[in-house]
Amino acid sequence: MAYRIVVDAGHGGSDPGAVSGNLREKDFTTKAADYMYQRFQELGIPVVATRTDDRTLTREERLNTMRSLGTDSEVIILSNHINSGGREFSYRC
Ligand SMILES: [Zn+2]
User: Fold this and answer.
1) Where are the beta strands (DSSP E) in 1-54?
2) How many Cβ atoms from other residues are within 10 Å of residue 76's Cβ?
3) What is the pLDDT averaged over residues 38-50?
4) Which DSSP state fits 73?
5) Which domains does the chain carry?
6) CA of 84 to the centre of ligand 1 (A)
7) Ligand 1 mean position, distance from CA 1 (Å)
8) How many C-beta atoms surround the C-beta of residue 68 within 10 A?
9) Predicted local confidence at residue 20, as pLDDT
């Protein structure tokens, strides 16, 4: 099997995702997605990212990137989101 990976950093730009104080979900999803993207590249696994900076993506832009490696069963989409879980905001590596 020749898997291909799409790494999606949830939210971004004008969409912060979950917010608690000065913590924004989009900042965490960008960091997680950047790490994943770099690591897949190091391993020689074909990978694309929906975004690598803090910008707003339309639903269609996000989907177009997800479809760019094909739509077969060897394409794996990893979409990063971090739930706020009520009143607390937690993040673990
Ligand atoms: Zn989210």
Assistant:
1) 4-9, 19-20, 23-24, 47-49
2) 14
3) 97
4) T
5) 4-80 (3.40.630.40)
6) 9
7) 30
8) 13
9) 87
CA of 28 to the centre of ligand 1 (A): 10
Count Cα atoms within 13 angstroms, Cβ side, for 8: 22
Collect residues with CB below 5 Å from ion ligand 1.
10, 17, 81
Q: Are 30 and 59 in contact (CB under 8 A)?
A: no
Residue 13: per-residue pLDDT: 97
Q: Which helix H or strand E contains 32, and what residues bound it? A: helix 25-42
Q: Assign 69 to helix, strand or coil.
A: coil
- The rounded Å distance from CA 63 to ligand 1 centre is 16
Tell me, in angstroms, the distance from the centre of ligand 1 to residue 7's CA: 14
CA atoms of 22 and 32, how far apart (whole Å): 18
Position 93 confidence tier, pLDDT thresholds 50, 70, 90: very low
